[in-house]
Design brief:
This protein is mainly α. It contains 3 helices and no strands.
């Protein structure tokens, strides 16, 4: 995480698609260290995963909202075109 609370994962588009980031990071840790991860470390990675899911949901909501507004603007343009033809 950065000091302002933004996740560094947001900067890399490849991390956006990963739902298994926490388990992936834990496996790397366990492979390199040779022992099981501490429960506090597991909780930390789960919180990171939760933050990433929240960010993904926010991105999806923003995309959906933008698409709705685009459709509304297209509809308004159609109405204006019909009015101009009258």
């Amino acid at each position: 995480m950065t000091h302002d609370g933004m996740l560094l994962f947001d900067l890399d588009p490849h991390w956006r698609h990963g739902r298994r980031i926490a388990t992936h990071l834990l496996k790397i840790y366990e492979t390199r260290s040779g022992d099981r991860a501490d429960p506090h470390l597991v909780a930390f990675y789960r919180s990171v995963r939760a933050c990433i899911r929240i960010r993904l949901a926010a991105h999806r909501l923003a995309d959906a909202t933008a698409a709705q507004w685009r459709r509304r603007l297209e509809r308004i343009d159609q109405y204006l075109t019909c009015i101009e033809k009258l």
